[in-house]
């Protein structure tokens, strides 16, 4: 028989089978014995579909539907019942009653006792949903009356999920959600440390790129002004420079060069204020040293121009008295404005702490 004819017959049979399968709305799978069977008629496949449906409902937050599906699974597949099902069901009951603190404790106990259960993923999803609620301001009840903030509890839950799951997708989602929550609260150092954790787990790809940029931004945002420690600025500059080197095209879009220039201005301005301090204490040598450092380290900056202006005003080796219009209050006001300006214009501010998109 002609081989080409055989191929044509086989193709026709495949198309007939596909059309018939679609028309009958049946789902088919290849059994262990090598035979194609209708999923609806195969017990093993029915069980897998039921479990999959339940997990999807949990992930989608469809509590009522998930409870009904779980009850049906327990009734139809007795082999899935038992101690672990009972433990998970008990946690689910507390979740349904919104006794979330107790539910979290019971989910934790379940995960500790049954780390490889088919319900593990669902328990983690439940914990994640509770953590998101807490981070978004949901209160926890104490002594049946008091309603207290649970943001710290939400942060602990997110971190614990990540520690349990390593580099799994839910670990990434939990850490990014936690970092966004810290940023929303202006807890930039905590956000920075969370992004460091993200970077250590996913150092490459889109997530690694996002973490690198976020670490720089959070350290930059953590700088409180020239009266405070400036070491965060040094590290932020290092992250920005690394980002510009590795992702040059995106760095242009995000104006990383402008951020680097701003850091230089902030650093120069801090040194300038130190020089001004020594001006006021009549320590001309120290003032001259700091003004010189500004010229050396940040040439062309506004701080360097101001420092040079002070040096040019020397008369017989002495600096003139400070002009009254440039008193300490005015100088600090300018500095506060400069530093506050950056803090309120940085990018990547999510609408919700549950947002976990990558670098857009």
Structure overview:
- With 360 residues, the protein is mainly alpha-helical.
- The protein folds into two domains: 47-185, Serine Threonine Protein Phosphatase 5, Tetratricopeptide repeat (Alpha Horseshoe); 228-350, no CATH class.
- The strands form two sheets. Strands 1-2 form a two-stranded antiparallel ribbon. The chain has a two-stranded antiparallel ribbon with strand order 3-4.
- Residues 9-26, 35-39, 143-147, 325-335 and 337-360 have low confidence and may be disordered.
- Helices cover 69% and strands 4% of the residues.
- The chain has helices spanning 3-23, 43-59, 63-76, 83-96, 100-113, 120-135, 151-165, 169-184, 188-201, 205-222, 231-246, 248-253, 256-280, 284-297, 302-312, 328-343; strands at 28-30, 36-38, 139-142, 146-149.
């Amino acid at each position: 028989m002609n081989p080409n004819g055989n191929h044509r017959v086989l193709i026709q049979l495949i198309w007939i089978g596909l059309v018939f399968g679609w028309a009958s709305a049946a789902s088919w799978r290849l059994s262990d014995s090598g035979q194609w069977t209708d999923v609806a008629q195969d017990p093993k496949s029915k069980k897998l579909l039921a479990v999959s449906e339940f997990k999807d409902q949990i992930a989608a937050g469809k509590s009522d539907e998930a409870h009904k599906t779980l009850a049906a699974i327990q009734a139809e597949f007795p082999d899935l019942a038992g101690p672990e099902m009972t433990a998970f069901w008990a946690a689910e009951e507390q979740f349904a009653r919104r006794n979330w603190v107790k539910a979290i404790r019971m989910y934790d106990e379940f995960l500790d006792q049954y780390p490889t259960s088919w319900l593990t993923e669902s328990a983690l999803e439940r914990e994640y949903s509770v953590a998101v609620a807490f981070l978004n301001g949901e209160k926890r009840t104490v002594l049946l009356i008091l309603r207290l903030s649970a943001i710290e509890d939400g942060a602990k839950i997110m971190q614990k999920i990540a520690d349990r799951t390593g580099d799994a997708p839910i670990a990434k989602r939990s850490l990014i959600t936690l970092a966004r929550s810290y940023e929303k609260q202006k807890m930039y150092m905590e956000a920075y440390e969370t992004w460091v954790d993200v970077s250590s787990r996913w150092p490459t790809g889109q997530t690694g790129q996002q973490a690198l940029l976020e670490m720089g931004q959070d350290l930059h945002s953590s700088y409180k002004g020239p009266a405070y420690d400036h070491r965060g600025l040094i590290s932020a500059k290092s992250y920005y420079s690394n980002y510009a080197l590795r992702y040059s095209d995106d760095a242009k879009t995000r104006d990383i060069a402008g951020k680097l220039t701003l850091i230089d201005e902030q650093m120069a301005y801090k040194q300038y204020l130190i020089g001004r301090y020594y001006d006021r204490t009549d320590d001309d040598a120290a003032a001259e040293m700091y003004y010189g450092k500004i010229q050396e380290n940040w040439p062309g900056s506004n701080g360097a121009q101001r420092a040079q202006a002070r040096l040019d005003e020397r008369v017989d080796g002495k600096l003139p008295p400070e002009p009254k219009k440039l008193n300490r209050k005015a100088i600090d006001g300018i500095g506060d404005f400069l530093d506050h300006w950056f803090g309120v214009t940085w990018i990547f501010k999510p609408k919700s702490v549950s947002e976990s998109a990558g670098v857009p």
